[in-house]
Amino acid sequence: MIRRPPRSTLSSSSAASDVYKRQYQRRVRETPLATMSFFGSLFGSGKPKAPPPPSIDEAIQKLKKALEIMDKKILRENHKHAQLTANIQKIVAVKKSKARTDPKVVAGLKRIKMIEKDIGQLELQRMNVEVRIDSLENAEISKVMVDGYKTAKEAHKEAGLDADVVDDIMLENSELMDEGDEIRELLAEARGPMADIDEDDLDDLYSELMGEGETEDVGGDAIDLPAVGNVTPVMPVAPAPAATTTVAEDEEAEMRALEAEMMAM
User: Fold this and answer.
1) What's the rounded Cα separation, in Å, for the pair 48 and 61?
2) CA dihedral (165, 168, 174, 178) positive or negative
3) pLDDT in tens, 7-36
4) Which of 58, 91, 169, 186 has the most CB atoms in a 10 Å sphere around its CB?
């Protein structure tokens, strides 16, 4: 008979400790994964989401803010440089040649050198920031251009414009135009009896008519001219003048009557 160890024993060297370990491992295996993930998220064991990267405009604004800070710093350093220079000049004016060994002058000169070094570094940093801003602005312009090209590409696709399609349309239009010309030529061709007339026959008829026209007048009828000895000359008789006097008198009478009527009014 196997004797089980007491459950109250917690020593790592005892057999009871092994029993507790096996029980814990079994519970872990039987615990659903979803329950563990729920408790993990509840107690904050999950990894925090990374913030989204800044946009180009946000990066430009931050760099411009850095430029403002550097400009203020350069202005302060220049002011300090001017103050220290003025103080040293005052000491030199008082002590003359002994001013070089004066502790205040020595400290002021060292401070001026440090300020000049700081100003030089700030100017270089400022130049680098300006170059970076220009680079970001160019990148922003390039991004806008690329987005515009993408939009134009989509619009071009949406319009359905294709070189092969346009070529087919133009070729079809040319064929339709050629077909129209052919139809007009067919409609203009002579049909029926008129198509049987030969051009040589027309030329012969024209020559014949031209030969007969030498003995015919414009009306086309021949004129029989009488002999000269049988013709009796006829003197032309002047036509009688039209009776225009009566008409003129009637018009004068009407004019006088119209004038009298107007005077009476």
Assistant:
1) 27
2) negative
3) 555 555 555 566 666 666 666 565 555 455
4) 91
Q: Look up residue 50 and give its two tokens.
A: 């990374």
Determine the Cα–Cα distance for residues 256 and 246; give it in Å rounded to an integer.
16
Distance of alpha carbon 58 from alpha carbon 67, whole angstroms? 14
Amino acid identity, position 242: A
pLDDT band per the 50, 70, 90 thresholds, residue 237: low
Amino acid letter, 197: I
DSSP 45: -
C-alpha to C-alpha distance for 21 and 25, rounded to whole angstroms: 6
Q: Which amino acid is at 125?
A: Q
Does the pTM exceed 0.70? no
Structure tokens at 244: 């225009």
Q: Hey, what amino acid is at 79?
A: H
